[in-house]
């Protein structure tokens, strides 16, 4: 018997529970909650999407006495803007609108507060405290919260409590592993999220609103309470649940209760609840009973009843046909390890190996952790080797513990191998583990191994981790130096070079003070020959310059000594120190009043020809200025007469830009002339090999871009090969231009994009906004959202600014992949971006999504209204989408759709195009099955002297085929071939495949399908189209003539789908499977393949 029987749930109370459930469901829900002064139409549902939808339509409660109709309208509009910002995923915009309402003294309703609170709940960054959310709720005090308000906050507090639990557990494990205490734990635990949640729940009950809460709220509360073994509060929550007419306990409820009571030591009560669960199990519908049984196993273990736990696992679950997973076995393994029963733990894990359920990382982890804690390296090593056979991506703590154990036992190489295993599994070492690994090699005087370890751990750490671990890594790195018998300058410079990734993260002080002191001390104590050798290496010289700049008072003496050390050298400092760094030192020396040293530095480092170079740059700028004015001939004349004729070389950077500008203007001959003259000058007049090669590279890269962007890939490829022969690689813009230029001939643009991206990344090419825009656009076109999102995140990581084109491409990727949430989030982010420039494209993308993928006329008009509000001019495509919203989304509004033809002329001076008429034809003929009206629109377009294009013919053909008029469709197709040049698009062929399939003439559908190709580059000779062959006769299908040339139509995913449906409609399942197999050979996205596979395999 339990000593504290807080829960009373025996057989009688189980019957009472069922009776109360039955009675409560017969009771009618109160028509008005107790707070009758609140507009009952604003009692929110618990579905966030429903809430969003209702927020547009529901009336706002009346303001305080004296409010006007105008005030009501302002409140309603402000709430609408908050809702729009929330839907767009823009929390900042939500808070700006909220603050604006308060500033204007507009009355804030619980409707407003619910929107703001819900925005925080759905958009907050994981791991952030709830201070701002709770402050908003406190502000709400004069207004009575609804059940929806309580639901938002209860879910949020429970979620935050779980985050805190996980973080605290992780920090404690880290502290135990490293021996370093953390100051974060008290602050996290003081948040008191579970206490706040219970206070809110009691308040909700007192307001008679708890009966409206859904079961998941009760279960979340019970789960967080179970962590603390808080039986009293759990009893209160459970009692309210069994009183509720809107919710009833499910398996998750009982699993949480049993787990809680086991943790509290109230085993008898846990068993009583288990019996209650069994009595209700058959009434719960389909569910996974293993969660409840696993909770019972855990409860027995927490009460030290191992035999009973094993009985449930090995007998009861088997007898009751309950699925057995590895989870309860892992609980038993943790039980053994916590009590030091390692032999039993190993015996159990050996029994499980090679059987079902399969062991996982959580099976070996507790055993490894126990051995690490006991310092038993040999046993831990055996267990680590076993752990490696599982997925270790979530086993960081155990891996780190074992690595530290290896270091403690002098096994440095083994410890480093563990870190490599971590990295291979997608984990990164923390600063403490990294520092101790480096220090181990330093203490053993293994200089090269220590440096290699330093370089490896930095490569493995994210920028954020490097920034946080800077001090630890620098101290460990300096230990390597101090551990040597002699602190040599070359050693310190080698360490400074190895620390480059850490130094790159330093913004306030690029070169740490302690490293600068160590480096300059080593410099002053070094022999003259060592100084000279160090100064003659570009990277080392840069480190010495940065150290001298950091130790401000040492700069003058160091610069003087550096000039003296290199006075007799064949290669001066000007060859190794970059102009930018030289200029910084010169400026600092001048500010310090070191006039003599500054003058000597200017002559020796910046070169006596510095003034000539400046004058040359001014004249080169005149070349660029002429180019930008579109005067390419004048630009060439200035280059020849004012630079080359005087024996000078033009500025490489300025000529690079001039070539690029003229190339973009389409004057490739002029661009090539500038390129040729520049390269000749560089070869003749720049003596230094590195400088000359860099100048030629800049010009060659620029001319490559010019040819690639104009589609001349043969010449572009020639310059690409030249750049590689020079030992360079194209820059980000050049790679992007190559990708753009190859678009007309690539068989798979997305694959090409990723190939070029990988090559650029492999060669450490600095990415640009243009580069990312092109790659993301190609991925968007192929509906490859995940890699597009990865690249977008990478832009932020590398601090490459996103512009309107970037956002447009990303929104397009989301829309094409059907990801509404991501699309709306990015759209909102775009509107609030400082770099945002108004463009119609992203608005069209969002409108198109709600026209074609998730039809919603109201949303289409919402985005069109926002476009108008921002004074962005619609395009012809915008009007086409508007027409589709009225003509293609039921209930059809054809008068308004027709009116758009005159509206676009009247308001935006846009001329209707054939595509607009195609929209009307499609609606009448295909959606409304009104071929006569479709014919009238076709005639109306002809009367307006508009020539039908392929889109119009496609709409007419769709109308005829959909209405079983295949003969007319074939005649219309013949007319189309006579009137226009048909593209390689397969959609008309798809229509005929569908039509022939429905008609039962599968052989005609096959003829069309087989006449198409999977190769975008293939050209064949054919006297007529595949459809004409299919129309004429069996004997003519697929015949070829050598009279005419045409581009074979390429199969798209929709083509495969149409052919599969044609076969399935005619009972030819094996043929449909063959088409699916052929489709799988193409590199289509999995989501596209799944659509067709579902048809075949259902």
Total number of beta strands: 2
CA-based gyration radius:
37 Å
Structural category is mainly alpha
CATH structural class of one domain: Mainly Alpha
The backbone outline, from C-alpha atoms, is globular
Q: Which percent range describes the beta-strand content?
A: under 5%
CATH topology of one domain: Serine Threonine Protein Phosphatase 5, Tetratricopeptide repeat
Low-confidence stretches: 1-67, 608-612, 1017-1024, 1033-1045
The description of the largest β-sheet is: 2 strands, antiparallel
- What order do the strands of the largest sheet run in, or round the barrel if closed? 1-2
Task: Return the CATH architecture of one domain.
Answer: Alpha Horseshoe
Mean pLDDT rating: 82
Helix content class: 55-70%
Q: Total helix count?
A: 59
Instruction: Report, as a whole number of angstroms, the end-to-end distance.
Output: 54 Å
Describe this entry's structure for a reader:
- Among the domains are: 54 residues; 114 residues; 76 residues, no CATH class; 121 residues, Alpha Horseshoe (Serine Threonine Protein Phosphatase 5, Tetratricopeptide repeat); 80 residues.
- The chain is 70% helix and 1% strand.
- It starts with 10 loop residues before the first helix and ends with a helix.
- This is Pentacotripeptide-repeat region of PRORP domain-containing protein.
- Pfam families: PPR, PPR_2, PPR_3.
